[in-house]
Structure to design on (338 residues):
């Protein structure tokens, strides 16, 4: 029940879908409910459940409202926390002076620094809250998120986070930022969890170059057009070999190092480098051009990895959808409003 109320508080627009889920659960698990006539009785039951859920949003228990001593009850405090989360992660965050009254109602002292955590499911929010003290939690673009107050950037907090966050689920931990930059930590954690394979806990600090290079795919394409035009006339297989060799050479600083990386004979690398010299000319001897070439090749490799991950996830989703029973598919359609 607590997880259900958390869901209602965090995402009130999902009340109709939640009501459908509750009715489905009642019909499936309570034998007396399965004999209810359809569809009229079911619609009445759904209406009653939805009314009860909306009541959880609008009704405070006796003593929950401010009685003048500055203390607030659980429901009122939870609403204030959601407003505070939204204010801190909005495009134009409020000043600390403007945030102070809201923070007081939320019983969440404003910290100097925060870091964001993006999780895979709503149920994980409670685990984070219980294990990591008193984070501020909310929903952003359909993803459950948390802001951890006053993390020490010098301390090794990863073991604590690894113990607290569920294993085998996708999650990302943002970088530590001043309170006014909470949106940045959240933004990059969200970006990382979107790019990452499933079932991994990732830290933004470990992937800063990749995140910087993949800020905008159109820029990656523009870089490729500018710097890799000499490879366009080649067959795809030959172009891929030379592109891989060029990146290994730029990263390693020489042919022997590139040969070790590619696990080929050094003479093979020398042969390919002579081809690259003919194609690119003096560009390969200019430090600035070499830097931009390496950045372009890194970006293309990262983008290819991301697309591969996304394709695997899409294939697994299609496989799971095909394995759904007809009743499960009908229920999923009702939950999604179709």
């Amino acid at each position: 029940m607590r997880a259900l109320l958390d869901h209602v508080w965090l995402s009130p627009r999902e009340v109709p879908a939640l009501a459908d889920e509750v009715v489905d659960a009642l019909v499936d698990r309570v034998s007396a409910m399965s004999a209810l006539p359809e569809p009229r009785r079911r619609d009445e039951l759904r209406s009653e459940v939805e009314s009860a859920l909306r009541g959880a949003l609008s009704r405070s228990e006796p003593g929950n409202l401010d009685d003048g001593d500055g203390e607030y009850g659980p429901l009122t405090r939870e609403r204030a926390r959601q407003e505070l989360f939204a204010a801190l992660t909005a495009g134009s965050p409020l000043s600390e002076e403007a945030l102070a009254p809201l923070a007081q109602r939320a019983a969440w002292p404003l910290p100097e620094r925060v870091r964001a955590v993006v999780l895979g499911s709503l149920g994980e929010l409670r685990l984070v809250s219980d294990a990591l003290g008193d984070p501020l939690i909310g929903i952003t673009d359909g993803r459950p998120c948390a802001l951890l107050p006053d993390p020490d950037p010098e301390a090794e907090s990863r073991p604590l986070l690894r113990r607290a966050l569920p294993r085998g689920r996708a999650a990302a931990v943002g970088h530590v930022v001043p309170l006014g930059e909470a949106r940045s930590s959240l933004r990059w954690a969200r970006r990382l969890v979107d790019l990452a394979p499933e079932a991994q806990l990732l830290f933004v600090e470990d992937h800063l170059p990749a995140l910087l290079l993949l800020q905008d795919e159109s820029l990656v394409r523009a870089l490729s057009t500018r710097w890799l035009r000499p490879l366009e006339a080649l067959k795809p297989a030959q172009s891929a070999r030379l592109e891989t060799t060029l990146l290994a050479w730029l990263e390693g600083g020489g042919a022997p190092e590139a040969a070790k990386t590619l696990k080929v004979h050094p003479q093979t690398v020398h042969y390919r480098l002579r081809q690259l010299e003919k194609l690119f000319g003096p560009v390969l001897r200019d430090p600035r051009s070499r830097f931009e070439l390496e950045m372009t090749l890194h970006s293309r490799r990262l983008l290819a990895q991301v697309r591969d991950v996304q394709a695997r996830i899409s294939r697994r989703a299609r496989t799971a959808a095909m394995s759904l029973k007809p009743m499960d598919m009908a229920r999923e359609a009702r939950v999604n409003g179709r």
